[in-house]
Amino acid sequence: MVEKIIREGSWICPNCQTKNRGAKETCDACGAVRGNVQFLYEEDGQVVTDAAERAKATAGPDWICAFCGNSNAFDRPTCQSCSAARSEGTLRQVKEATVKGGEGLARRQVSPHATVAPDVRIEPVKVPLPLWFKAGCVIAVLGLLALVGLQSLSFEDTMTVVGKEWRRAIQVMQYQTCREGAWRGELPAGAREIRRQEKIRSYRDVLIGYQTVEETYTERQQVGTRKVKKGVRDLGNGRFEEIWDDEPIYRDVQKTRTVQKPQYRKEPVYDTWIEFDIDRWKDIEKAVAQGTTDEPRWPETGAAAHPRDIVGEKREGAREETYKVTFKSDKDGKTYVVDKLGHQPLSYEAFRRLQPGDHHKVIISGLGLVKDIPGLQPSSR
């Protein structure tokens, strides 16, 4: 049920900065007329219960004199300061009030009739992170930043090629007769059936009856209501109107009930399993060739130059190649093994141009990794 509560606000005298009750038309300290001040909503302000005072609060907003700027009650026909007519003045705006603390305070769940609202705001519990966890995170972040920083640094060095290594491989395939199996209707093209047999392919649930059982379930029940502040309106005369509404309170209740629970048995589902022969290309081995100073070459595979789909015939499949070059720094004698430049594997062309005894300018990262070999052109001593 929606309920409206009238609560008195306050205002601050612009002349002496004294805070006064909202209904006061003159300052308690210096006697200055209220004027066009801003009304402040007070959550613990006095609830207006007197019928006459409530009538004044709801009669309408104050009006501001167009000549002297003083504030006057809604029903005053002339300005209390300069006697100017009310018709020349401007009514204050009735508007939503600004509530200190935002929505969390605006929805306090307390009695709206309390003259002083107790502080019942529920703050979330903040569990502090352990010191070791914070320290570990800081160290990890600093370490990552250090690695990124070092990798981004670049140093130039002159190095000599002192070693090379290469490896090439070819996958060898053979056309073979393979014994395989599949369910009826799933045989591949070219399959030659050998035998059939009935096998369990899956299971299905078969209803065999019902059993009376007690089961527990959770039911959400309303156990009461609470008053919740939905909003606050500035009435423009030193009072504020709070809108409260009933909000249901729920809790989960454990209950039991008697039900008929179906009972099932697993029943096998049979299908025809077919064994068959089929001719396919199969991987049988990998031919490898490797070396150091000699020219890289592809290994012999024994595969036919123009392979046909004939049992026993061989053909070549996927190829792979890796190249490594070892450098030695002319400055400190440190060695570096290079198998990639940047994010790309070292190419055959680069490997071919890096000959033992050649000197090259090499770019090194702060982590000691070779980043680039500019131009791959040998330099003179």
Describe the protein's topology.
Blueprint: E1 3-8, E2 10-12, E3 19-21, H1 51-59, E4 63-64, E5 71-72, E6 90-91, E7 95-96, H2 103-106, H3 131-152, E8 154-183, E9 192-234, E10 239-291, E11 314-329, E12 335-338, E13 340-341, E14 344-345, H4 348-353, E15 359-365, E16 370-372
Antiparallel strand pairs: 1-10, 2-3, 4-5, 4-6, 7-9, 8-10, 8-11, 8-15, 9-10, 11-12, 13-14, 15-16
Summarize the structure.
This protein is mainly beta.
Task: Provide an overview of this structure.
This protein has 381 residues and is mainly β. It has a domain at 5-93. Helices cover 11% and strands 47% of the residues. It is built from four helices and 16 strands. The protein has helices spanning 51-59, 103-106, 131-152, 348-353, and strands spanning 3-8, 10-12, 19-21, 63-64, 71-72, 90-91, 95-96, 154-183, 192-234, 239-291, 314-329, 335-338, 340-341, 344-345, 359-365, 370-372. The strands form four sheets. Strands 1, 7, 8, 9, 10, 11, 12, 15 and 16 form a nine-stranded antiparallel β-sheet that branches. The chain has a three-stranded antiparallel β-sheet with strand order 5-4-6, with no helix packed on it. Strands 2-3 form a two-stranded antiparallel ribbon. A hairpin with a 4-residue loop joins strand 9 (192-234) and strand 10 (239-291). The longest helix is centred in the middle third of the chain and has 22 residues, at 131-152.
